[in-house]
């Protein structure tokens, strides 16, 4: 009887551990969702900056009276736009790397969910079997106790 109770306790402990794993999985998914929201906001910001750069490129430099000043203004504007484009390209590279990492993490979370769901189904079956075993143990205990009481009454 002790071994059956020990098995039932182990099944319950395993089920509790599995529930904690699900809670951690949910927390990780929420964190992954937050990272995706941040990346989406970053993508929107990068698109906006890209549009602004394109608009600036379309504009002609302001008219300057002197040819030397005009060349200087155009050169400064081109340098500024090149720096801005380089900065945006660097941010896009970082964004793509982060997106790949978040995507990999989500894929792993999806795999983990499938594994946890399978373990949970098995655990639920084990809990049901343990419940049946527990009911059987209780019946046997009651029968043994009743038998003991009957024998005790016969002695008196």
TrEMBL record:
Q: Which residues form a coiled coil?
A: 64-98
Q: Which UniProt keywords apply?
A: Coiled coil
Name by which UniProt lists this protein: Tektin
Q: Which organism is it from?
A: Enterobius vermicularis (Human pinworm)
């Amino acid at each position: 009887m002790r071994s059956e109770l020990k098995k039932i306790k182990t099944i319950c402990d395993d089920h509790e551990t599995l529930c904690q794993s699900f809670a951690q999985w949910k927390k990780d998914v929420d964190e992954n969702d937050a990272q995706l929201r941040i990346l989406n906001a970053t993508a929107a910001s990068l698109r906006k900056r890209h549009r602004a750069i394109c608009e600036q490129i379309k504009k002609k430099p302001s008219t300057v009276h002197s040819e030397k000043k005009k060349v200087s203004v155009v050169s400064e504007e081109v340098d500024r736009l090149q720096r801005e484009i380089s900065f945006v390209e660097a941010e896009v590279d970082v964004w793509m790397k982060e997106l790949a990492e978040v995507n990999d993490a989500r894929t792993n979370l999806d795999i983990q969910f499938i594994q946890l769901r399978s373990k949970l189904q098995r655990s639920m079956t084990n809990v049901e079997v343990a419940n049946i075993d527990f009911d059987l143990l209780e019946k046997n205990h009651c029968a043994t106790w009743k038998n003991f009481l009957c024998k005790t009454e016969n002695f008196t």
